[in-house]
Specification:
It is built from 10 helices and 6 strands, in the order H-H-H-H-H-H-H-H-E-H-E-E-H-E-E-E. It is an alpha+beta fold and about 425 residues long. Strands 4-5-3-2-1-6 form a 6-stranded mixed beta sheet. A hairpin with a 2-residue loop joins strand 2 and strand 3.
């Protein structure tokens, strides 16, 4: 037991030394980025030079800050993340508009604050163990007689032990400072959550209103028009049945055809609101049916430990159907795949293909519509689609499940 504890402590302190070394490298990078951002600010009067330098500097700061946030989370054992919503640069509008949106982002302000403090902090936390190591090396390197060598070895061992004991404390100090500088306060988290819920509610209202308008339009232009034609045909047949039975018979046939068409349109409308296959077979079965209808061969692995609520099922189903339709229309893919999983309270659907890639959730696009649909349920959408492929659309919705486990695996095409 003692040996195991000693080994675990050695691994922990070795990891702390690695984190301090990474922190020192990040500190040097932070100082370099500070110089780059300041150069961009100084060169702002020269619009053609200062703006791109500042924009590139802020982008690099975000990448470095994200890496250090994750490293601090590993050191502290915390769940890393950033609850504050990011002010995304608007589509179009030029570099000035995008840079203005980035500067208004609360994360940018925290990252710049961290940038100014982290360079000196990283160097300060790395100096004590480095200095002790150098001092120990200097003590040992001096030529002495045997008693002097024993004394110097003792001093060097004491210096190394001090550095060894300081490593975890300095590593946690650096991580806590990073966490404090980069993470929002409780008040900011609460304000961000309120803003997020307000935006989700607005999106939900807009989506509901759009869906009602679609249903009203489909009823008015489809089934209602068919029923009006049916009524007119039956009225004409009623007046013609005594004088021209053959004409009345033709009108009744037309009325029957109109009724059949109206019934089919009503079924399509109901299926668009909540597909029967979704109600009967659940989300895995509905996704399996959608994959079978896709022109591109789709390999599926649909494993969940129950069923989400009907609204979540419907949102995920229609998101998957639209994604498969985009694959068939735009991807030039030879095969596709779909995975449905549920872990730690999050329903996750991944739809991918081996097509041309380059998919982006641009404003007004289908992917942007899927993101809005999922945001109603506090969900998220991520796109991995480098040029040349492959493409993966990741959709996540936090929810609770119920009922027995269902796993479907198949390959279509």
């Amino acid at each position: 037991m003692f040996v195991q504890r000693l080994r675990a402590d050695a691994r922990r302190r070795t990891a702390s030394a690695g984190h301090l070394a990474l922190g020192l490298a990040a500190g040097v990078a932070a100082l370099s980025l500070t110089a780059l951002v300041l150069a961009g600010l100084v060169a702002l009067p020269v619009a053609g030079l200062g703006l791109p330098v500042l924009a590139e500097g802020l982008a690099l700061v975000r990448v470095l800050a994200g890496l250090q946030r994750e490293r601090a989370a590993r050191v502290l054992g915390a769940a890393h993340g950033d609850p504050l919503p990011t002010v995304r640069p608007p589509y179009g509008g030029g570099l000035v508009r995008r840079l203005g949106a980035r500067l208004r982002d609360p994360r940018t302000r925290r990252e710049l604050r961290w940038l100014l403090a982290f360079g000196p902090l990283a160097i300060a936390t790395a100096l004590p163990p480095a200095g002790l190591l150098l001092a120990a090396a200097a003590v040992i390197s001096k030529p002495k007689d045997l008693p002097g060598k024993v004394a110097e070895a003792f001093v060097a061992a004491l210096l190394l032990l001090t550095a060894w004991l300081l490593l975890p404390w300095l590593s946690r100090l650096q991580a806590k400072a990073t966490w404090h500088l980069l993470m929002p306060s409780d008040r900011a988290e609460l304000a961000a959550r309120v803003a997020q819920l307000t935006a989700s509610r607005t999106t939900a209202v807009d989506v509901q209103a759009a869906e009602l308008r679609r249903i009203e339009r489909d009823l008015h232009d489809g089934a209602q028009a068919r029923l009006v034609a049916l009524t007119m045909s039956l009225g004409l047949a009623e007046h013609s049945i005594a004088g021209d039975p053959e004409h009345a018979r033709r009108l009744v046939v037309e009325a029957r055809e109109s009724a059949t068409t109206a019934l089919a349109e009503l079924r399509d409308l109901v299926r668009g609101v909540h597909p029967p296959v979704l109600a009967d077979r659940g989300l895995p079965g509905a996704l399996e049916a959608a994959a079978m209808l896709c022109p591109v061969p789709v390999r599926t692995h649909l494993g969940v430990a129950g069923r989400p609520s009907p609204p979540v099922e419907s949102a995920m189903y229609f998101a998957a159907v639209e994604t498969l339709a985009n694959i068939a229309k735009h991807s030039c893919a030879g095969r596709a795949w779909m995975r449905l999983t549920y872990e730690e309270g999050v329903l996750r659907l991944v739809v991918g293909d081996d097509g041309a890639g380059g998919a982006r959730p641009r404003h007004g696009s289908g992917l942007a519509g899927i993101r809005e649909r999922l945001s109603v349920f506090d969900g998220a959408l991520a796109v991995r689609s480098p040029a040349g492929g492959p493409t993966e659309i990741i959709m996540e919705v936090p929810c609770a499940l119920s009922s027995p486990k269902t796993t479907l695996c198949s390959e279509t095409g």
